[in-house]
Amino acid sequence: MSAYSETNFNSQHYDDSRPNYTPQFYKELINYHSEKGGEFNLAVDIGCGSGFVTFELIKYFKNVIGTDPSRTMIDQCNKNVTNKNSIEFLIGTAENQPSKIKPNSVDLITGAECCHWVNHERFYKESARVLKQNGTLAYWFYKDPIFIGYPEANKIYENYTYNSSIEKLGSGYEKWMGNYYQQPGHDYLRSLLKEKSPPNDLYYDVIRHEYIVDRDGVPKNEVDPFKTKTPLFIKKTINMKWFLNYVKSWSAYHAWMKDHGDKYDIAEEFINELKNKLNWNDDTEIEVIWDTVYTFARKRQTRLVNR
Ligand SMILES: C[S@@+](CC[C@H](N)C(=O)[O-])C[C@H]1O[C@@H](n2cnc3c(N)ncnc32)[C@H](O)[C@@H]1O
C-alpha cells in the first residue's frame, strides 16, 4: 500500500477515477446503526483515502474524523474541508487510531476499500477500544469490475490483475501486475475477506453480505440497483478513457511502473489489448459491475479494551 503514501501519488486523480457508494447502502448502514439506539455524535472513517465516505458521513453525524496513514491523501482531503468545526482529517491507521480519538468515544467506524490491508486482530481490538458500547463497526469492499457480456475482456483483466506472465507465459520480465500487489491484502480482496470476522468476544450482531456478479449473463434490464440483491450495488457505464484512469489508480500499477516504466506504460498496454481484442475504441460504452461485500458489527459490553 506504500504507493498511496508516496508524495507523487496523484490523489486528485484517485478521487476522480474510483467508484462511489450508493445512497441505498448508506441508508442500510444508518438503519443498522440506529436500530439498537446508536448515537450520531462521532464517526471515524479509517483508510479514508480522498474522503469519499468521510464527507458523506457528515450528513448524519455531528462530528466526523477521517484517518489515513498517507499524508498525501490527508492533505488532499484537508483541501476540500469547508467546515473545520465538524470534520477533520488526521494521520492514523486502522490498528492505531490518533490519540485525539479517545477510548469509548466513537459511535461509528467505517472502513471502505481498505480493511484488506490491515492487521485484522489489531484492527478489531483497536476499533473496540475507541467504539462506545453498541457502537457500529462497518467495513466494505468492491473487488473487480466485471465487463458484462464480454468473457474475453474478463480473462484479459484477470491476467493483468492476478497473474504473472513469467509463470504463465515464460516471458523474460513481468508483463502483468499480479505480483505487484502487497500480500496478503490482495488475496483477501480476491476472497472478499471471507477468512476474517469481528471476534465474538468483542462484537455481536455481525452481518456479512456478499454480492457476486452474474459474470457474463446479466440481462441489461435487470441491472438495476433497486432490483438487485444488495444495497452495495456498484455499476457504471465506462469507456476505455475512464478505465485507463482507473488502472492508473491501482497501487500495483505504481509498483510495476517503478520497475519497468522505462519500457512502456502498462495501463496503456492493458487498454490497447482490450481495444484490439474486443474491437473497442476509446469511446465504446461498456457496462461494468463490481463484486462487493460489507460487514456490520456492534461492540459488545466489555471492560475497557486496551491497545
Ligand atoms: C483503496 S484506498 C480507499 C480509500 C477510500 N476509503 C475509498 O473508499 O475510496 C485504501 C486506503 O487505505 C489506506 N491504508 C493502507 N493501510 C492502512 C491501514 N493499515 N489502516 C488504515 N488505512 C490504511 C491507504 O493509505 C489508502 O488511502
Please describe what this structure looks like.
The chain has 307 residues and is an alpha/beta fold. It has a domain at 2-147 and 183-234 and 290-299: Vaccinia Virus protein VP39 (Rossmann fold, 3-Layer(aba) Sandwich), CATH 3.40.50. It has eleven helices and eight strands. Strands 1, 2, 3, 4, 5, 6, 7 and 8 form an eight-stranded mixed β-sheet that branches. Helix 9 runs antiparallel to helix 11. The longest helix is centred in the N-terminal third of the chain and has 13 residues, at 23-35. It is elongated and about 60 Å long. The two termini are 23 Å apart. The model has no long low-confidence stretch (mean pLDDT 90). It binds S-adenosylmethionine (SAM). Residues 1, 4, 18, 46-49, 52-53, 68-70, 73, 93-95, 112-114, 117-118 line the site of S-adenosylmethionine.
How would the global form be characterised? elongated
Total of DSSP H or I helical runs spanning 4+ residues: 11
The CATH H-level homologous superfamily of the domain at 2-147 and 183-234 and 290-299? Vaccinia Virus protein VP39
CATH class call of the domain at 2-147 and 183-234 and 290-299: Alpha Beta
SSE class: alpha/beta
Named CATH topology of the domain at 2-147 and 183-234 and 290-299 = Rossmann fold
Architecture of the domain at 2-147 and 183-234 and 290-299, CATH level 2? 3-Layer(aba) Sandwich
Number of strands: 8
Query: Can you tell me the residue ranges where pLDDT is under 50 for at least 5 consecutive residues?
Result: none
**Mean pLDDT metric:** 90
The radius of gyration over CA amounts to: 20 Å
Report, as a whole number of angstroms, the end-to-end distance.
Answer: 23 Å
Order of helices and strands: HHEHEHEEHEHHHEEHHHE
